[in-house]
């Protein structure tokens, strides 16, 4: 297949060839005057397979490309993601204000009069339209996008770099065959920079402005972020055009490329805009549009999914529009009988065989239960929750009342414990939060008192937390007990909150900010100070307890000139407990809705979690106080505003967003 | 100028101020020539360490007072590096093995081995053995205690151990039976007073007996604390007045305020404030056990007789969890919340009874 592909996609025999066709049409036919290098054979194959971003690339191409490729291949098999790439801001499924934010940044920094390079960092889950936004804006604002892609081998870099060849046939790039990805990356940046300068002095182009787009990073940078930082620093100094970095959020902590920029975000003045998953309503709009167009075009050859099926696709894709469109296409192509079977079989086993896939959507609103159980056979994504939402689900424990007579009643002496049915499955929430139960408990512990109003309740809740810790105390059984521990904690918390016992008593919830747990920090300081004290006052030959509870506090009260500088400093810091700083001394570290929860390291090792809390990201984030909460990271308020007026069928979907909003906006 | 505690620490068995009979016995023990392993126990501030140092001086002469601090690094079998501080003279080595946490077994074995393997330089002029002083033996892991038992037997020829701890309850029986147990009880109030006035006389100060008695009582007969208090009094005000305030440590005051906060209002909001205060105490290295104990004492003094039993039981329950659990704050907070609930209920019931 590889060889077939690399021969070029002119022969439109197979489906797969057709899927990569447009790119080749563009390059070989030379239709486009766009300088963007299209994906080449080997790369595009892997790219498609891994479902990388490249699919979206053709977005950059003007109408011409789509038109031309459509003209060449009237075949329906072309990916809809390409055909229906957004052509204007109006077609983007991204929130309007986000687009505006990006646009205004670009406008400012495309201005040639500005010196130095500027860097924009776009973050967000995959398939939320980050790249599409840039591409659409490129078209509307009239600038070009020059993109870096990791060369799979060094030699390929030469061929990939078609744009240089086309302008500079005697490219000196051959020289860099042996150099590392990092070297190539640096070279790319420098050349991209220089190149624009040359063109400015030369011919006059209508589109003389451009940006550099980087979506993937040489692997080396994950290991040595400093390397990248150095290159970026250099770019800031001598850059001529804006640099846009696009990074997908990921919940698995180790490869989190966002961390690449944590340290330098401030230093380099990188502007960070974070995207949200595509809202179900916007997605519905896009899907419906595509379906309508395709239905007309195909004149009945494809089966048009009905509204319910679209709903399902929407909720199944958890905000990933690319995967939604792909699955839409796929489900439309299969002929009717096959499709029915797929859907039917899925429905059959979804409840039993695939509990993980079940209740896939982010939904748990008033949608009926059986609706939830349906999960799309095609293109379903594993749902995951951001910590913020997961915590909210537990703390706001939504309940629904039993209907009619089927409500089980507890005997009279237990009526205290009568609760309505929970709408949340705590274990599922923890699972989706991608966090160990222990850390999840810490987060709960930090935040739960705000949600209680009665002391009895809170005493009960705190006892459950204590129980949970107690359960996991024994290290030999800890790995097994962790799950029970978190179950006890979450269910205990939910149950003991008697003010939320009934479904109708919950309307008064209101927004309460969530915070990151202090404990790890406190525990670390405790141990550090403990050791410092012991090493400083070793000569007293005292046991640590008497040293710290008797000697040091009294030393603070005495005037004793004999101690050395470090000892004096320590005594001044720790002997005195100022009576004035009673509360609020500890900075509350607000938990943003996008925070991946920096603490999800292995929980077995106390040392490692102490080290984790040392994470520069944490300390840096420390500086952001509550007041910073509604920054660009927290656009939920806008989210609902952006959505078009829901039609009657969309009302259900919309309700989900209301749910978010309840603990998301203030 | 060093602290009074250090300045007027007795240096020989004969000069000890109290428990003179015991001092005599120890002296006899040393003069007998041989000398078994010792297990010295008693409450904090009773003078265990002072007594041990006097004993060592009696054994080896003034040489033991030339102390040096050493940083030893020990590699565990699992290639983990441990840094441990020891205090040593030519004749003895003092170490607190509980600093090493879970690897205390390795520390004990390695240290005793190195000490025991080297002979005394002049065994004719000196004793044939060296002394290893282990403090906080009750905090050793069981593993380490068993290792200690074997080590004790193995190096009996060249090395004597003096173990020092607050209570023997956590020391395993085999060790207890291999040692001569020496209990050092707290000095009585009168003894503390006489020490205090003696120290003040040497300092050229006049200490009113009433104040001395107050200090002795307030310190809980902990002599170290009493001397520190006395010195703090001196800084605060001189000449002493019989009824002057005795300075307390900040954390004790802070803890009392915390207890008052708990008693004065019971609400989730207050619980959050209390949590912040507990964190504050923890960052000042007041260990969770001490916090718990202090809180209970303060709370008990604040609540009605009916509640006391219940509160004490609760405290015991959560203290137990504190020892077994991982994260102290859960248990401290659970205790506070529970107390709040009980106390609030009690107050409301009391109010109800009062009104009808």
TrEMBL record, chain A:
Q: According to the UniProt entry, which residue ranges have a biased composition of type Polar residues? A: 61-74, 615-650
Residue ranges of region Disordered?
1-79, 344-376, 597-656
Q: Which GO terms describe its biological process?
A: DNA damage checkpoint signaling; DNA repair; mitotic DNA replication checkpoint signaling
Q: Which UniProt keywords apply?
A: ATP-binding, Cell cycle, DNA damage, Nucleotide-binding, Nucleus
Determine the domain of life of the protein's source. Answer: Eukaryota
| Annotated Gene Ontology cellular component terms | nucleus; Rad17 RFC-like complex
Q: Name one Pfam family in it.
A: Rad17
Protein biosynthesis: is it a keyword of this entry? no
Domain Checkpoint protein RAD24-like helical bundle per the UniProt entry, residue ranges: 384-508
Q: Does the keyword Lipoprotein apply?
A: no
Subcellular location, in the record's words?
A: Nucleus
- List compositional bias (Low complexity) regions by residue number: 1-15
Which PANTHER family does the UniProt record give?
CELL CYCLE CHECKPOINT PROTEIN RAD17
Protein name stated in the entry: Cell cycle checkpoint protein RAD17
Organism (species): Danio rerio (Zebrafish)
From TrEMBL, chain B:
Cell compartments where the protein resides? Nucleus
**One MF annotation (Gene Ontology) recorded for this entry:** DNA binding
Q: Which PANTHER family match?
A: REPLICATION FACTOR C / DNA POLYMERASE III GAMMA-TAU SUBUNIT, REPLICATION FACTOR C SUBUNIT 3
Listed under GO cellular component are: DNA replication factor C complex; nucleus
> What family is this protein classified in?
Belongs to the activator 1 small subunits family.
Q: Which UniProt keywords apply?
A: DNA replication, Nucleus
Q: What is the protein name stated in its UniProt record?
A: Replication factor C subunit 3
Q: Does the keyword Repeat apply?
A: no
Describe the subunit structure: Subunit of the RFC complex, an heteropentameric complex consisting of a large subunit RFC1 and four small subunits RFC2, RFC3, RFC4 and RFC5; the RFC complex interacts with PCNA. Forms an heterotetrameric complex with RFC2, RFC4 and RFC5; this complex has ATPase activity but is not stimulated by PCNA. The heterotetramer of subunits RFC2, RFC3, RFC4 and RFC5 interacts with RAD17. Interacts with CNTD1; this interaction facilitates crossover formation.
The domain of life for this entry's organism is Eukaryota
Q: List the InterPro entries hit by this protein, alphabetically.
A: AAA+_ATPase, DNA_pol3_clamp-load_cplx_C, DNA_Rep/Repair_Clamp_Loader, P-loop_NTPase
Role description: Subunit of the replication factor C (RFC) complex which acts during elongation of primed DNA templates by DNA polymerases delta and epsilon, and is necessary for ATP-dependent loading of proliferating cell nuclear antigen (PCNA) onto primed DNA.
Please classify the protein's predominant subcellular localization into one broad category: nucleus
Its source organism is Danio rerio (Zebrafish)
Gene that codes for this? rfc3
Where would I find the AAA+ ATPase domain in this sequence?
Answer: 34-186
Its GO biological process annotations read: DNA repair; DNA strand elongation involved in DNA replication; DNA-templated DNA replication
- Keyword presence, Nucleus: yes
């Amino acid at each position: 297949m590889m060889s077939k592909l690399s021969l070029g996609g002119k022969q439109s025999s197979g489906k797969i060839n057709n899927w990569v066709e447009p790119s080749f049409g563009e390059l070989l036919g030379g239709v486009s005057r766009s300088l963007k290098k299209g994906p080449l054979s080997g790369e595009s194959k892997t790219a498609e397979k891994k479902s990388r971003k490249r699919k979206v690339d053709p977005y950059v191409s003007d109408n011409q490309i789509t038109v031309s490729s459509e003209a060449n291949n009237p075949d329906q098999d072309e990916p809809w993601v390409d055909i229906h790439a957004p052509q204007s801001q109006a077609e983007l499924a991204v929130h309007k204000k986000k687009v505006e934010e990006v646009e205004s940044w670009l406008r400012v920094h495309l201005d040639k009069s500005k010196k130095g390079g500027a860097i924009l960092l776009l973050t967000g889950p995959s398939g939320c339209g980050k790249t599409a936004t840039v591409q659409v804006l490129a078209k509307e604002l009239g600038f070009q996008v020059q993109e870096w892609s990791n060369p799979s081998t060094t030699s390929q870099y030469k061929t990939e770099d078609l744009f240089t060849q086309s302008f500079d046939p005697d490219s000196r790039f051959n020289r860099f065959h042996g150099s590392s990805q990092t070297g190539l990356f640096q070279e790319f940046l420098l050349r991209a920079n220089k190149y624009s300068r040359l063109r400015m002095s030369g011919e006059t182009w209508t589109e003389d402005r451009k940006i550099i787009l980087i979506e993937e990073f040489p692997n080396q940078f994950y290991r040595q972020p400093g390397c990248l930082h150095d290159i970026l620093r250099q770019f800031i100094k001598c850059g001529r055009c804006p640099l846009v970095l696009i990074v997908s959020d990921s919940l698995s902590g180790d490869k989190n490329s966002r961390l690449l920029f944590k340290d330098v975000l401030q230093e380099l003045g990188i502007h960070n805009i974070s995207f949200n998953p595509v809202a179900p309503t916007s997605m519905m709009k896009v899907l419906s549009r595509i379906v309508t167009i395709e239905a007309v075009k195909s004149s009945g050859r494809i089966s048009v999914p009905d509204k319910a099926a679209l709903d399902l696709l929407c909720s199944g894709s958890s905000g990933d529009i690319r995967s939604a469109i792909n699955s839409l296409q796929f489900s439309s192509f299969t002929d009717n009988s096959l499709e029915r079977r797929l859907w039917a079989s899925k429905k059959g086993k979804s409840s039993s065989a695939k509990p993980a896939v079940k209740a896939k959507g982010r939904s748990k609103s008033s949608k009926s239960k059986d609706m939830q159980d349906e999960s799309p056979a095609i293109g379903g994504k594993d749902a995951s929750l951001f910590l913020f939402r997961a915590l909210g689900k537990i703390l706001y424990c939504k309940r629904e009342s039993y209907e009619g007579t089927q409500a089980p009643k507890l005997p009279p002496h237990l009526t205290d414990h009568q609760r309505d049915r929970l709408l949340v499955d705590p274990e599922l929430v923890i699972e989706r939060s991608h966090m160990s139960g222990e850390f999840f408990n810490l987060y709960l512990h930090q935040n739960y008192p705000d949600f209680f109003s009665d002391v009895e309740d809170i005493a009960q809740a705190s006892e459950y937390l204590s129980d949970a810790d107690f359960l996991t105390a024994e290290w030999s059984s800890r790995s097994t007990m962790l799950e029970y521990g978190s179950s006890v904690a979450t269910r205990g918390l939910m149950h003991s909150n008697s003010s939320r016992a009934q479904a109708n008593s919950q309307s008064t919830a209101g927004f309460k900010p969530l915070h990151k747990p202090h404990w790890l920090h406190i525990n670390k300081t405790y141990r550090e100070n403990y050791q410092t004290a012991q090493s400083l006052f070793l000569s007293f030959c005292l046991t640590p307890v008497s040293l710290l509870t008797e000697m040091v506090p009294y030393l603070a009260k005495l005037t004793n000139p004999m101690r050395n500088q470090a000892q004096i400093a320590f005594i001044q810091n720790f002997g005195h407990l100022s009576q004035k700083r009673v509360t609020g001394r500890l900075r509350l570290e607000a938990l943003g809705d996008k925070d991946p929860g920096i603490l999800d390291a292995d929980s077995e090792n106390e040392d490692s979690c102490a080290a984790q809390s040392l994470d520069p990201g944490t300390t840096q984030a420390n500086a952001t106080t509550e007041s910073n909460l509604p920054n660009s990271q927290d656009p939920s308020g806008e989210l609902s505003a952006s959505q078009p007026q829901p039609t009657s069928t969309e009302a259900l979907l919309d309700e989900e967003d209301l749910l978010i909003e309840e603990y998301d906006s203030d | 100028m060093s602290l009074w505690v250090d300045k007027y620490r007795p240096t020989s068995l004969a000069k000890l101020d109290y428990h003179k009979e015991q001092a005599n016995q120890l002296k006899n023990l040393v003069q007998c020539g041989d000398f078994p392993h010792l297990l010295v126990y008693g409450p904090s501030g009773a003078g265990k360490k002072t007594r041990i140092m006097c004993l060592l001086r009696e054994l080896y002469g003034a040489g033991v007072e030339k102390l040096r601090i050493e940083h030893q690094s020990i590699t565990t079998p699992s290639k983990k590096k441990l840094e441990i501080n020891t205090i040593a003279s030519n004749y003895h080595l003092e170490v607190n093995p509980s600093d090493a946490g879970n690897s205390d077994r390795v520390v004990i074995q390695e240290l005793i081995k190195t000490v025991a393997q080297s002979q005394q330089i002049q065994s004719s002029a000196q004793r044939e053995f060296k002394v290893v002083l282990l403090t906080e033996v009750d905090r050793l892991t069981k593993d380490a205690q068993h290792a200690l038992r074997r080590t004790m037997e193995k190096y009996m020829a060249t090395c004597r151990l003096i173990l020092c701890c607050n209570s023997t309850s956590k020391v395993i029986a085999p060790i207890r039976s291999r040692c001569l147990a020496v209990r050092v009880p707290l000095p009585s109030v009168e003894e503390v007073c006489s020490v205090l006035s003696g120290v003040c006389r040497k300092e050229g100060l006049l200490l009113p007996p009433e104040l001395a008695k107050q200090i002795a009582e307030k310190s809980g007969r902990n002599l170290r604390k009493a001397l520190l208090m006395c010195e703090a009094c001196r800084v605060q005000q001189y000449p002493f007045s019989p009824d002057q305030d005795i300075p307390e440590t900040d954390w004790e005051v802070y803890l009392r305020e915390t207890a008052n906060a708990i008693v004065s209002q019971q609400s989730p909001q207050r619980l959050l404030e209390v949590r912040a205060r507990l964190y504050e105490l923890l960052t000042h290295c007041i260990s969770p056990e001490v916090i718990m104990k202090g809180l209970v004492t303060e709370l008990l003094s604040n609540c009605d007789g009916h509640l006391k039993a219940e509160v004490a039981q609760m405290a015991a329950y959560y203290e137990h969890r504190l020892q077994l659990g991982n994260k102290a704050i859960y248990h401290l907070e659970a205790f506070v919340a529970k107390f709040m609930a009980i106390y609030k209920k009690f107050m409301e019931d009391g109010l109800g009874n009062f009104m009808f």
